[in-house]
Design goal:
The chain is built from 12 helices and 12 strands. With 319 residues, the protein is of the alpha/beta class. It has 2 domains: 169 residues, Rossmann fold, CATH 3.40.50; 141 residues, Rossmann fold (3-Layer(aba) Sandwich).
Length: 319
């Protein structure tokens, strides 16, 4: 039986055996949160939106946040801890956290905020009909990788070769690179790939990249940002990533769905589930708001001139 069919069957089975939600229990809801790296700005934006919906941490709700601090290897233990706390649902930030929560429980509802491509990762049967205990927000669109490469070409008109820096512990690493490679072929840009299992492997990865004629780097969003940004500047390598915080923290450019929008919308999924909705009945939402962020300070450090037409289109320019 294929995984998607199994997920669908599990979803229908849950009709007869409802998932454990606060709406069926007494007391204030206990909301688990599992994050791969930094808790901010997710924590603040998510809490603010929950408060608008009537859930105040420490008063009529309890929020349990666990962060792996950029160490994906500890996600499994953190997910198991949240399950042991008997949380009513788990909100997960980034695909590795979704996978860890999924392995830890098939009963507690899981809200993605976001996951890269939950269908390709086998986490849901489809966006319209998730089919299990997982729903929430995706962070991909079919055109995203092509758009990022087009932006690279605007910044670097002579670009020929792009290196993809991937997270080997992220189930989406192959799918992400496949999409980038497909987009590259259509634009005449060669793509290569190198993957790491943790930040301790970054120096070696950059040493290997430095020995090749690479024009730019695309960084998978689930890789901790700070160490990558510092090394990219050290090696004078223009680094891009579909993650707004990447550019805000010193990466050259990002184009992606609005993370702030995603973080806030997660609260609406939480509210619906706590009021009795079932995850397999709630379609997964794709990004509708996209943001272009350019770090002009980084561009100057790299000796790059950003075209005025591109700066004019940016949602945010960091100087």
């Amino acid at each position: 039986m294929r995984r998607r069919e199994l997920l669908s069957l599990l979803g229908y089975a849950a009709v007869a055996h409802p998932l454990t939600v606060w709406a069926q229990n007494s007391g204030k809801p206990k909301i688990g949160v599992l994050i791969v790296a930094n808790a901010e700005p997710f924590s603040t934006l998510f809490r603010q939106e929950l408060q608008k919906l009537g859930y105040v941490d420490g008063q009529n709700a309890q929020i349990e946040i666990r962060s792996a601090g950029g160490k994906p290897a500890v996600l499994a233990d953190l997910a198991a801890e949240l399950v042991s706390l008997k949380v009513d649902l788990i909100v997960v930030n980034q695909t590795p956290a979704v996978e860890a929560a999924h392995r830890a429980t098939s009963n507690i509802p899981i809200v993605m905020s976001p996951a890269a491509d939950p269908v390709a990762a086998g986490l849901v049967a489809s966006l319209a009909h998730p089919g299990g205990n997982i729903t929430g927000l995706s962070f991909t669109s079919p055109e995203l990788q092509g758009k990022n490469l087009e932006l690279m070409r605007e910044v670097l008109p002579s670009i020929r070769r792009v290196m993809f820096l991937g997270n080997a512990l992220d189930a989406m690493v192959n799918s992400f690179y496949d999409q980038l490679q497909t987009a590259g072929r259509s634009l005449g840009i060669e793509t290569q790939s190198i993957t790491i299992h943790g930040v301790e492997e970054l120096e070696q990865a950059f040493d290997a990249i430095g020995n090749q004629a690479i024009d730019a780097m695309m960084v998978q969003p689930s890789i901790p940002r700070k160490a990558v940004i510092d090394l990219a500047l050290k090696y004078r390598l223009p680094a891009f990533s579909p993650n707004k915080q990447f550019a805000e923290e010193g990466g050259l450019l990002s184009y992606a769905g609005s993370l702030a929008d995603v973080y806030r919308k997660a609260a609406f999924y939480v509210d619906k589930i706590l009021k009795g909705a079932r995850p397999f009945d709630l379609p997964v939402e794709q990004p509708t708001v996209f943001e272009l962020v350019i770090n002009l300070k980084t561009a100057k450090a790299l000796g790059l001139n950003i075209p005025p037409t591109l700066l004019a289109r940016a949602d945010e320019v960091i100087e």
